[in-house]
């Protein structure tokens, strides 16, 4: 199945270990392991019982195969990708390499995920620049609000592909164009989208784009991905100096012939111990399955489910974003309704997220219309 088609996918529940009495609508928090991903991890755990079976090449071949797979999802050459342990790690790399001046500001969204705020707060302490927190006015969407705040003083725009609390979509092509017009860099956190929504990286043109691997990429916790624009490849500074990122590291007989040169492309930003055999094996199996399904097919299938949540919300007068991704939706609820919802859904083994004043629903290919009906009926019972 190619990523150019958008056919609805049949239920994939048999590929997961989810009991019939569990309604898991919380992919945005953490994906359950595919059975095949869990098996790949177990195989590697067993393999490490016999470490003499590892070859010198094993330290590199799996990592590069994974980089190739991830590059196909980013739709960019593999040389543009680094392996990172977390989004905060990737953002620290960006903070170290994007040149900013004290007279400039950094534009972020109100309520943005903490990892995409703390790093810039620390940077303001170091060089004295200002953070501009964008809040949408009445009737204004996030894109319009961001465009209104990006100006000649903006040195960096750091935003997600969609807002993590409700799935509100941001037009990053327009944001990227405005940022380049004023000479600002663009950093994107795609953690809540990559793997479930097509991301036109070639049109967004970010300086850096980061994503965790344990949500919509179906991989293990502790392994993520970072795109770095080629302009950072030659002179870019990593935040650690592990031996794996150096040229010639694949020859263990010459490791003490210390090298100043890094491997090609964004590999200079790879984190130490990125050969992590268990993580890499699981991530490869996960990306393999996503490639088979096709991201547009995943997005189209999940939109059918979240559309039903939107219909329920609008029928009951609750706010949802007008422009959104199809794989998740946040419904704004009054405080007293939210409290009753938490207790009721917990009693019925219905798993969602609660973010600020919203209930966030994020199904996946193991979900069904019956799961959504169970959710909306439970919510109806407390209104």
Structural class: alpha/beta
Distance between the termini: 43 Å
Helix proportion range: 25-40%
SSE string, helices as H and strands as E = EHHEHEHEHEHEHEEHHEHEEEH
Rg from alpha-carbon coordinates: 22 Å
Strand order of the largest sheet: 2-8-7-6-5-3-4
Q: Give the CA-based shape.
A: globular
Strand content: 5-15%
Biggest sheet details: 7 strands, mixed
Low-confidence stretches are 1-5
Characterize the structure shown.
The protein has 11 helices and 12 strands. The model is unreliable at 1-5 (pLDDT under 50). Helices cover 36% and strands 13% of the residues. The radius of gyration is 22 Å and the shape is globular. The strands form 3 sheets. Strands 2-8-7-6-5-3-4 form a 7-stranded mixed beta sheet, sandwiched between helices. With 383 residues, it is an alpha/beta fold. β11 and β12 form a beta hairpin.
Topology:
Blueprint (H helix, E strand, L loop, with lengths): L22 E2 L10 H13 L10 H17 L6 E4 L2 H11 L7 E5 L5 H13 L2 E5 L7 H8 L4 E7 L11 H10 L3 E5 L11 H4 L3 E5 L11 E5 L48 H17 L1 H21 L13 E4 L2 H13 L2 E2 L1 E3 L2 E4 L7 H12 L3
Parallel strand pairs: 1-10, 3-4, 3-5, 5-6, 6-7
Antiparallel strand pairs: 2-8, 7-8, 9-12, 11-12
Helix pairs in contact: 1-8, 2-8, 3-4
Keywords:
alpha/beta; seven-stranded mixed β-sheet; 36% helix; globular; disordered N terminus
